[in-house]
Amino acid sequence: MTAKPVTADIPLSFIITTYNVRPYIERCLTSLAACARAGDRVILVDDGSTDGTAEEIHALMEQSGFAPGVTLTPVLLGSNTMGGVGIAGNVGLYEALSDPDCEAVFFVDGDDWLVPAGFTACRRAFATTRPDILLGNYREYDEGLDSYRTPADSKLWLRRAQQRGEDHIAKRGLALAMIAVPWRKFYRADFLRRHDLRFPEGDFFFEDNPFHWEVCLKAASIAFCDQVLCQHRINRPGQTMASTGIELAAFFDHYATIQASLPSPAEPELEAAALRWLLNNMSWHVERLRSPAQWPYADRAARILASIPETVWQAIEPHFAKSAILPAAAALRRGDISGVANSWLLAEQGRTLSGLQQEVDNLTEQVTGLTLGMNDALRPAIAQTADQVSALFEVQQFQALTSTWAPPPESA
Predict the structure, then answer these.
(1) pLDDT value for 371
(2) 95 and 202, same domain (yes or no)
(3) What are phi and psi of 105, to 5 degrees?
């Protein structure tokens, strides 16, 4: 049941997780300082960084301009924990939720930065109605291309705008369909405590996915605010999202975890939504999966897909009718591991050859440009030299003629 609306602000416990983000952490903290208010708490959990991030944290937290009344709590783990953000995130949750005065939690990635205006708008919306969770919008910053873009789920905000009323099932479905990142959400602390919600821990990455599903499934009230509250950095060195190996098979374990968290008796709509989530992620995986991981990934996929009831499979087929992942997933479901893995290998080789051809074309274009540029630069000199050669040739011709010329004999 949605809590009674109030207008007073709600203090936040910000949980920042960092690992080898020294070039980015200062910007992150400076942007956070522009958003934090007196009564807020900033908990920074460094997961054993080896690039100097941990050594700079104390100084950066003091120098980033946090307002008086903001409590700063650095937690340095000393050595990197297994998996991804799970253990570090749970350490931050323990620190936050152990404080009886903690009323709400907001996660921050150490290489991202907050957008104060959008963040404040989302915070105000959260404080007004105080749902169990509120999801905000964000943008992506591609470091490799030095460009900004909207995330892949941006069209879902139009779906939210078209929703009428406060149908919880519809809002839950929309939240589940959104990208499963923890740092776009405001969480009520008593909601997290009541359900003992934590990230799964293990030797795997992408733990935010099952955490997202459990949070959305347990939330009795969900709100949205279509304001950009942060800029999420992508395509940087060392980032988990750049994975191309067998670590991507963790999604099958996460799918099993998600299935186990679904209400019982099973709701067909949620089972179909979970399978859509898996196939959407597989679509992303196969575009980047490298050959050493393709066979074990296909084997894991085949076992999971074979366990899906036929009614659930039929329910999602129309959604993927135009997708390349559907025939591959159907073949894996039938057990054709070698056929699918070989097709992925051929596709990878094709992408490699295409990339090499593009490099050759680029080099050819550069050489052609250099040649034309050199010709343009040398043309005046060549013309001058040609004029000089022509003049010398004429002089030589004149000298040759004059050397053989003799005056006519005088008359007697």
Answers:
(1) 66
(2) yes
(3) -125, 145
Same domain, 236 and 285: no
* Residue 210: cis peptide before it, omega within 30 degrees of 0: no
Give the torsion sign (CA, 193, 195, 198, 202). positive
Residue with tokens 């999420």: 232
Query: CB neighbours (10 Å) of residue 335?
Result: 14
Determine the 3-state secondary structure of 291 from DSSP: helix
> Based on the domain organization, do 21 and 162 belong to the same domain?
yes
pTM of the model: 0.82
Bridge-based pairing of strands 185-188 and 147-149 is: unpaired
For residue 106, the domain's CATH number is: 3.90.550.10
Q: Are residues 195 and 249 in the same domain?
A: no
Using N-to-C axis directions, what is the helix angle for 208-218 and 250-261, rounded to 10°? 10
For residue 308, being part of any structural domain is answered with yes
Q: Which domain holds residue 19?
A: 1-242
Report the pLDDT value the prediction gives residue 4, as an integer from 0 to 100: 44
Residue 61's alpha-carbon distances to 32, 69, 97, 119, in angstroms, are 10, 14, 21, 20
pLDDT at position 233: 95
- Cα 105 → chain centroid: 22
Nearest to 56 by CA among 85, 32, 20, 92: 20
Task: Identify the segments of the chain with pLDDT beneath 50.
Answer: 1-7, 401, 403-406, 408, 411-412
Cα separation of 404 and 10, whole Å?
Answer: 110
- Which pLDDT belongs to residue 161? 86
Q: Are 328 and 340 in contact (CB under 8 A)?
A: yes
Please give the structure tokens belonging to residue 73: 């709590």
pLDDT of residue 366: 78
The whole-number pLDDT of residue 394 equals: 61
Question: What was the pLDDT predicted at 189?
Answer: 98
String of DSSP letters for 71-96: EEEEEE-SSPPSSSSHHHHHHHHHHH
In one-letter notation, the amino acid at residue 308 is I
Relative orientation angle of helices 268-286 and 250-261, to the nearest 10 degrees:
170
Maximum C-alpha span of the chain: 141
Do 51 and 20 lie in one domain? The reply is yes
How far apart CA 232 and CA 403 sit, in angstroms, is 85
Query: Which of 231, 252, 240 lies closest to 114 in space, CA to CA?
Result: 231
